[in-house]
Design brief:
By secondary structure, the protein is α+β, with helices and mostly antiparallel strands. The protein has a single domain, classed as 3-Layer(aba) Sandwich (Beta-lactamase). The protein is built from 14 helices and eight strands. The strands form two sheets. A five-stranded antiparallel beta sheet has the order 2-1-8-7-6. A three-stranded antiparallel beta sheet has the order 3-5-4. Strand 1 and strand 2 form a beta hairpin. Helix 4 packs across helix 5, helix 6 packs across helix 9 and helix 8 crosses helix 10. The two termini are 29 Å apart. The chain binds 6-diazenyl-5-OXO-L-norleucine (DON). The site of 6-diazenyl-5-OXO-L-norleucine has 12 residues, from loops.
């Protein structure tokens, strides 16, 4: 980083000025007090409604953070992006997409229906993410698969914080009736690869949702996606570049629940939200951004997160189009 700075080759040349605008955008979004906490899991209902954090990591490792950026929170559905990148890296895109489609579903993330080929619509909603879990190291034991995923996510986060909330996992398991229904629907339509145990796979899906991150660590993961799969802090290749390209394409079209079309229209960048109130945003070839604020809009997206993303493209020309 210092070498690039001395050669004046930083991806954001005047980073302090950039960070000052980010801070203003952060402060403006902080005034937004609309939205509701997710209440279907007690651990999410107990989150601090005032929490708000934004962390940025560029592809050359410049960083800034504002607000509650070291607080731990549940990774939830933002995990669907790196989980898919991992499955695609391991199995190849053709194999993965024999089992999962490419299209937005136009329905809620936990809808009980498949596409016309009887596969999940895409890997960014529950049915697709459950099948994705089945494609990650199926030959390992449940314990080794969990360890493997943790270690890969940690690599993507440059060794920074990735934890696990057992309480969240137990609640997911206890109250996830719809996810059980989705899993049995998937089983009935032979959506799983041969040998996959549906309920073990669902447990792995719940475990992935119950991983914990903070804005800082997850911004490094987002930066790894912005950087073609190479972690900007360590230089280590975590995901195949084609898998990352596919992940970003599907985040753009399907990453923000039923708001994905509007988000692609207004913000024009790949993002993936989670019900804990996190939004992982990727500015391809420039930076990764992680936002977290637990108050959600009717679509299940963080109100402050959405406002921040929309304001961001008024200050910088990050919109892809
Ligand atoms: O499957 C569930 O109910 C959650 N654990 C997933 C949460 C989430 O963020 C919604 N996503 N697509």
């Amino acid at each position: 980083l210092i070498g690039r700075a001395l050669q004046n080759k930083l991806i954001i040349p005047d980073f302090p000025e950039f960070a000052a605008t980010i801070q203003e955008t952060f402060e403006e979004a902080k005034n937004n007090e609309t939205g509701e906490l997710a209440d279907y899991i007690p651990q999410l209902a107990r989150q601090d409604p005032n929490a708000w954090g934004v962390s940025i990591c560029t592809i050359d490792g410049q960083r800034c953070s504002f607000g509650n950026t070291s607080d731990h929170f549940s990774f939830q559905s933002s995990s669907k992006a790196p989980a898919y990148a991992l499955a695609s890296t391991l199995m190849g895109s053709d194999f993965v997409h024999r089992h999962i489609g490419f299209e937005p579903s136009g329905q809620s993330f936990n809808a009980l229906f498949l596409n016309n080929n009887n596969t999940p619509h895409n890997p960014m909603l529950n049915s697709g993410a459950i099948v994705t879990a089945a494609l990650i190291k199926p030959e390992l034991t449940a314990a080794d698969r969990f360890d493997f995923i943790m270690s890969k996510f940690r690599e993507a986060a440059g060794g920074e914080y990735i934890g696990f909330s057992n309480a969240t996992f137990l609640s997911e398991k206890k109250t996830g009736f719809r996810n059980f229904a989705i899993t049995y629907l998937l089983q009935d339509y032979n959506c799983f690869p041969p040998g996959a145990d549906p309920v073990d796979t669902l447990e792995l899906y719940f475990q992935i949702c119950s991983l914990e991150v903070n804005c800082e660590s997850a911004s490094v993961m987002a930066a790894t996606l912005a950087n073609g799969g190479i972690c900007p802090l360590t230089g280590k290749k975590v995901f195949e570049s084609v898998a990352v390209r596919d992940t970003l394409s599907l985040m753009l079209s399907c990453g923000m629940y039923d708001f994905s079309g509007q988000f692609a229209f207004k913000v024009g960048m790949p993002a993936k939200s989670g019900v804990s109130g996190c939004v992982m945003l990727v500015v391809p070839n420039i930076m990764g951004i992680m936002m977290w604020s637990p108050l959600l809009d009717n679509f299940g997206n963080s109100c402050r997160g959405i406002q921040f993303c929309q304001d961001l493209v008024t200050h910088f020309n990050f919109h892809n189009y």
